[in-house]
Specification:
The chain is α/β, with parallel strands linked by helices. 47% of the residues lie in helices and 15% in strands. Bound molecules: S-adenosylmethionine (SAM).
């Protein structure tokens, strides 16, 4: 409903601005229709009057235009905020993230095309984008997220069994260090095995949304907390048996840029000796070689999307390779015990969604000419990807990974 009101206000505002501009155009046309040789002194003074009037109209139109640009910027900013909130919607799988009229109107303000106006998008995750959501891509039969969580559960159960710790609540206290609806839903479903659950996000609005979504499912001892790992006082004295860092690394730039090199030493402060750390991540796109025209285009779409995010003055996800995680874990005395990779599969819809992320950033470009050219390029990319990434085909590119490591603070390495 709020979306609809917003669109209505925008339309009324724009038509109010458009009317004087059209009037100015009509005056100009009338003036031009008077042949120069017919003019006597009275006509000249009348033309002079008209000229003055036209000048005044043009000045007013210019001022209105400036106001319209400001209005668009303000509307775009408030829309962006609203869009971010929608992205935090507790269940993004069912939330119709609004590619609705106001969003498309702003994205296409400098063109006249609104053909994507009603495009809904429902995929969870997709390849990385800006904002606060990331995660797994959809596969044909089973969500890779499920497979990744199953792998972690299997690894943890097996490791605890080897230590003769397969009693109830054997997972002990579990920290979800970068929580979200997927990891929290999975951990809530494992409550029989856990003694306590602490879920952390740096985003207060996400914490609130998760509180709402899981309010009937959390036990009294479970907590959803807002905090930043860059804050050295956050969660002091807290110790966990298991820590899950599920797509946390890639999202750090959005909250504490360049803290990635310190995140593992920060997390292991909260991990008991012998405790398990599970790191889930997306291998950066630039680390994978395209194997077909479609995957080449996929990589290009990701580059252009990130360029749009940067040109809008926003921050992109910054993913790190699995090898980088291995090196970091060694430095904080975590022994790598197992790891696994899952190829990512992309459908035409997911590719188009990434192009749309780029389009959504155009109103924030500092230069309208650049935004216009980028809009054309995005349309061209969309055309180009349409054939190799047609609806019934999916393309495998890059991978997500899980790294399982045991905290061994006493080890010599
Ligand atoms: C992409 S989401 C993780 C996906 C999530 N596990 C899920 O299942 O949907 C990244 C999470 O890491 C959190 N995060 C990023 N940087 C952080 C920081 N510096 N301190 C605390 N949390 C952070 C974000 O607030 C968000 O909750």
């Amino acid at each position: 409903m709020r979306r609809f009101n917003f669109a209505a206000v925008l339309l009324v505002g724009l038509s109010a601005i458009g009317q004087p501009l059209l009037a100015a155009q009509r005056n100009y046309d009338r003036q031009m229709s008077v042949a120069a040789h017919e003019l006597g002194a009275p006509q000249i003074s009348s033309v002079q009057l008209q000229l003055n009037h036209t000048m005044a109209t043009l000045t007013a139109a210019h001022e209105l235009n400036t106001a319209a640009v400001r209005l668009i910027r303000t509307a775009a900013t408030s829309f962006d905020n609203a869009h971010r909130m929608f992205k935090l919607c507790p269940d993004q799988n069912v939330c119709d993230v609004p590619y609705s009229f106001p969003e498309a109107a702003m994205a296409h303000m400098n063109t006249t095309q609104l053909e994507n106006a009603q495009k809904p998008t429902k995929e969870a995750g997709g390849y990385t984008q800006d904002g606060e959501t990331a995660g797994n891509t959809s596969s044909s039969s089973q969500e890779p997220g499920d497979l990744l969580f199953q792998f972690i559960a299997h690894h943890l159960d097996k490791s605890l069994e080897q230590r003769d710790r397969s009693d109830t609540t054997s997972w002990g206290t579990v920290l979800d260090a970068g929580t979200g609806m997927h990891s929290l839903a999975w951990l809530v479903a494992q409550q029989k095995k856990t003694a306590k659950l602490v879920a952390v996000t740096a985003s207060p609005s996400q914490a609130e949304a998760l509180q709402q979504q899981f309010k009937d499912k959390l036990r009294p001892q479970d907590e959803i907390l807002t905090g930043d790992w860059a804050d050295s006082t956050f969660l002091s004295n807290f110790q966990a048996d298991v820590i899950a860092a599920d797509y946390l690394i890639g999202a750090i730039d959005g909250f504490s840029p360049y803290f990635q090199d310190r995140i593992f030493s920060r997390l292991v402060q909260h991990l008991k000796p012998g405790g398990w750390l599970y790191v889930v991540g997306l291998e950066p796109f630039s680390n994978s070689e395209p194997t077909s025209k479609a995957t080449e285009l996929l990589q290009q779409v990701a580059r252009v999307r990130d360029a749009c995010i940067l040109l809008a003055g926003h921050r992109c996800y910054r993913e790190y390779p699995q090898e980088w995680v291995h090196r970091q874990l060694e430095q904080v005395k975590c022994r790598m015990d197992a790891s696994e990779r899952w190829p990512n599969v992309y459908s035409a819809r997911q590719v188009e969604r990434q192009i749309q992320v780029g389009r959504d950033k155009l109103p924030f470009f500092p230069d309208t000419q650049l935004a216009d050219e980028m809009a054309k390029y995005l349309d061209q990319l969309s055309q180009e990807t349409r054939k190799p990434c047609s609806n019934d085909q999916t393309h495998s590119f890059g991978f997500d990974y899980v790294v399982c490591a045991e905290h061994q603070p006493e080890s010599s390495s």
